[in-house]
Amino acid sequence: MKALATLKNLDSNASKDVVVRNLSRILNIRIIDVDIEQGVIGFLYNNQKAFDQVKKELNRIGHPIQSHTNQFSKKAAANRKESLPIYQARGRKPYPPITWQREKPESL
């Protein structure tokens, strides 16, 4: 999912570098853009837990989120509409069931 967040105190390249450095440590997000003039950051995240980690980290470093908008990507929206299992939604066939059979040892 994509989020655009307006941050407080994002007014210099130094603060931008601090935000980018600290958010890059969170594994489930990807920073798209940081606009110093508008005080806006755009990033992609996988789940709500990742978004909560971003909010917590931004609060910790002194750049809390003032407002945000969440947007579903086209791919995520398409997957939400489909109720098919993932392998069918991606046009794949399921794996056949695994059956284990022991081979009989050859007698001497």
What is this structure's SSE topology?
Elements: E1 2-7, H1 13-23, E2 29-35, E3 40-45, H2 48-60, E4 65-71, H3 74-81, H4 86-89
Antiparallel strand pairs: 1-3, 1-4, 2-3
What does this structure look like?
By secondary structure, the protein is an alpha+beta fold. It contains 4 helices and 4 strands; from the N terminus they run βαββαβαα. It has a 4-stranded antiparallel β-sheet with strand order 2-3-1-4, covered by helices on one side. The longest helix is centred in the middle third of the chain and has 13 residues, at 48-60. It is elongated and about 80 Å long.
Helix percent band: 25-40%
What is the count of β-strands? Answer: 4
The helix tally amounts to: 4
Helix/strand class: alpha+beta
State the shape: elongated
Poorly predicted runs = none
Distance between the termini: 64 Å
Mean pLDDT: 81
Can you summarize this structure?
This protein is an alpha+beta fold and 108 residues long. The chain has helices at 13-23, 48-60, 74-81, 86-89; strands at 2-7, 29-35, 40-45, 65-71.
What are the defining features of this structure?
108 residues, elongated, alpha+beta, four-stranded antiparallel beta sheet
